[in-house]
Amino acid sequence: MISFLIFLGVFLFMECVTWLTHKYIMHGLMWYFHEDHHQPKYAHPFERNDIFFVIFAIPSIVLFYYGVEGGINYLFFIGLGITTYGFCYFMIHDVLIHQRFKWFKNTKNKYLIGLRKAHKVHHKHLGKEEGECFGMLFVPFKYYKV
Ligand SMILES: [Zn+2]
Ligand SMILES: [Zn+2]
Ligand SMILES: [Zn+2]
């Protein structure tokens, strides 16, 4: 039970981390890497922006490494929370919203449509400043109204 709560807590916490990272780092001093993601079309299969997957993978790998020492410990579940969040982020942001893979295009799910709308609003801004909707899995309720 406690492991599940750790997992869930980390998962929710990652949304805050994402919001802060996106607003202050990706749209801040690492804008160079995020910039190509704000261009209208994907020019290449990979974007410079993908570097952020690598950056977020490092703590998870370290946590998994130490999380299995002497049986599975709490570090493992922290790592699992980060990895699961990363997976959801990828499915929502890269697959559902940006259609890097054409998997579930015609969703009727209100929550998913809301997420997509909110992120399109984020992409209206091509520049570094004055962005909105930096979160990914939690967006303002107004976007759920059809
Ligand atoms: Zn952005
Ligand atoms: Zn984009
Ligand atoms: Zn995007």
Description:
60% of the residues lie in helices and 0% in strands. It is globular. The chain has helices at 2-29, 31-34, 51-67, 74-97, 110-124. It is mainly α. It contains 5 helices and no strands. The mean pLDDT is 86. It binds zinc ion (3 copies). One zinc ion binds next to helix 5. One zinc ion binds next to helix 1.
Q: What distinguishing features does this structure have?
A:
mainly alpha; single chain; 146 residues; binds zinc ion; 60% helix
- Average pLDDT metric: 86
Distance between the termini: 38 Å
Number of strands: 0
Assign a percent range to the helix content: 55-70%
Task: Report the portion of residues in β strands.
Answer: under 5%
Taken in chain order, the helices and strands follow as: HHHHH
Q: How would you describe the shape?
A: globular
State the helix count: 5
Please summarize the sheet with the most strands. none
Compute the CA-based radius of gyration: 16 Å
Distinct small-molecule ligands in the complex? zinc ion
- Unreliable stretches: none
Please identify the structural class as seen in this structure.
Answer: mainly alpha
